[in-house]
Amino acid sequence: xxxxxxxxxxxxxxxxxxxxxxxxxxxxxxxxxxxxxxxxxxxxxxxxxxxxxxxxxxxxxxxxxxxxxxxxxxxxxxxxxxxxxxxxxxxxxxxxxxxxxxxxxxxxxxxxxxxxxxxxxxxxxxxxxxxxxxxxxxxxxxxxxxxxxxxxxxxxxxxxxxxxxxxxxxxxxxxxxxxxxxxxxxxxxxxxxxxxxxxxxxxxxxxxxxxxxxxxxxxxxxxxxxxxxxxxxxxxxxxxxxxxxxxxxxxxxxxxxxxxxxxxxxxxxxxxxxxxxxxxxxxxxxxxxxxxxxxxxxxxxxxxxxxxxxxxxxxxxxxxxxxxxxxxxxxxxxxxxxxxxxxxxxxxxxxxxxxxxxxxxxxxxxxxxxxxxxxxxxxxxxxxxxxxxxxxxxxxxxxxxxxxxxxxxxxxxxxxxxxxxxxxxxxxxxxxxxxxxxxxxxxxxxxxxxxxxxxxxxxxxxxxxxxxxxxxxxxxxxxxxxxxxxxxxxxxxxxxxxxxxxxxxxxxxxxxxxxxxxxxxxxxxxxxxxxxxxxxxxxxxxxxxxxxxxxxxxxxxxxxxxxxxxxxxxxxxxxxxxxxxxxxxxxxxxxxxxx
Length: 595
Description:
Layout: E1 4-6, E2 19-20, E3 59-61, H1 65-70, H2 77-83, H3 90-98, E4 103-105, E5 142-143, E6 158-159, H4 160-176, H5 185-193, H6 211-228, H7 231-234, E7 248-253, H8 254-265, H9 286-289, H10 298-314, E8 323-330, E9 347-350, E10 362-367, H11 382-389, H12 396-399, E11 407-412, E12 418-421, E13 428-432, E14 452-457, H13 472-486, E15 498-500, H14 512-525, E16 531-534, H15 539-554, H16 559-575, H17 586-593
Parallel strand pairs: 4-7, 9-16, 10-14, 10-15, 15-16
Antiparallel strand pairs: 1-2, 1-3, 5-6, 7-8, 8-11, 11-14, 12-13
Helix pairs in contact: 4-5, 4-6, 6-8, 6-10, 13-14, 15-17, 16-17
C-alpha cells in the first residue's frame, strides 16, 4: 500500500505536509499544473498570464511529492544567469576592478565570470557567521514535515524553498483564475506562509482582506510570485551584509530589488543569524499586514496600497532596469569644529515643496538607526512615508546593520512610484507618481538614476531631557553625522545642494533652531554646499531662518566661531539660566552674540 500525502482542503490553497494512511483507493497519481517561472525573462513580468488548469486532485503519492514541491524543470544555472546579465558602464567596471573588496556588483555582467556558481551546497558560510544574508533558497533552510495521527514514520527534512514554490504555485493558480474570494486573500496567504515561516503564527494578515488592498492584490500577486521565485537565479552567490564600521557599496538592478521585495512581501526570508551586538531590521512584511485588535490600522493600509502600486508599476519594467547603489559610509576623522575657518554656505528656504521634490539634490532621510524605521510596522512619519512611496529603499533593510553614531547610508538611483498626502494618522496614498515626460530619465556614469538619499539618524531625547541636546557631546555627534553625509569625495566634480528640513525634531524632541544651525555648519564645512531647507508650509520658521542667516552672514561668522557660540549658549542660557528672565531662543542669542 502506498503512503499518501494529502492536500486537505484545496480551497484553503495549502498543502498540508502530513502522512495519511487512510487514503487507499488511488486510481493514478496526479501532478498539479505549473507554469515555468524561474526562467521567464524580466520583460514578461509585466504580462500576467494565468497558470494552466491542473487536473482536479486532492491526492498525491509520496513518490511524486518532491516533484510537486520543486515545480517545473528550469534551465541550468548558467543559462538562467545569462538571461539576467546586465550591461555595465566602463566607469563602474573600472571602479569595481579597482576596489573589488568594497564595491560589489551583485548582478552578472559582461565583465563577471561566465558562470556564477552557487557555493550554498559546499559550505555553511552563507548560513552562519553573520556576514551574509540568509536566503530562502539556501539548502540549509529546511523544515521537518509533521506526522498525522501520530504515526511513527520517518520523513526526511524538506527544503523550505521547495515548500515555498509549491505554496506560491497554489496561491497563484487560485488568484489568477479568480477562484479565490479576495475578501479572504489575507487568510489564504497567511495559511500558506505559515508552512515555511512559523514567525507569522503570532500575526494576522487581516489587512490584506481589506477591499482596497485585495483589489490591488488581484493584479499584483502574479507579478509578486513570479519575481519572488527568481531569487535562486538572481542571487546564486549570496548577499553580503553591510556590517558596522565597514565601508562598502552594493550595486543591484531594479529587477533584483523587485525580487527582494517580493520575497519580503511573502515573508520567505529565514530567521536572521545575528552575532552578539549585531542588529538587523526585520525585512519580512508580516507586522505590516497585521491590523491588530486595537489601534489605528489606516496608515498600515495606505503603506500596503503604496507597495502594491509599486509592484503593479515595476511589472512593466523592461530588462533589468537601472542600477541602484547602497553605500555604507563612515565619518572617519571628523574636523575640529572649534577651529574651523570655513565660511558659511548659501541657504535657500522652501515652504511650498517637499524634500523628495528636489531631484537634483542630496535628499536627507530623517532616519532611524535601523534603516527604514517602522516602514514594515506601525510607523508613518517622514522616513516610513519616504520608504513607502519609494519601496526600492526597503531593500536596504535586508543587508544593513544598525547605523553607528559616525555612519550614514547613501542610496543612489531609487525611483518614486506613489503620490501621497498627510502624515502619521492622516497619511494617504494619492495615486501613481508619473515623471514629467519633458524630464527624460538621465543615468549617471554608473548607470543610476539621478538623485541621492542620505539615510542619517538623529539623537533621540526624552521630553524631560531635551535640554541635553545642547551639550557639546550631542552637538558634536550631530555635526559629525551630518558631515559624514554631506562631505564630498576627493574627485567629485558636481556639487549638488542638500535638501533637508527639521531633522531629528518632532518625535525625537530636537530643537528646530539647533538642528538648522548644525546642518548649516556641516554643509559649510563639507565644501560650501548650498543648504535647501524645507519648512513644510511653516512660513514663520522660514522667515526666522532667513533673518538669522542674513544677520550672521553680514557679520562674517565662520564655522568655528559659530561652534563656540553654541557652547556659550548652553552655558549661559541652558545650564545656568538667569533666575529673573526666561532663556533666549538660539536664534535670538546668536544675533546678539555676534556684534
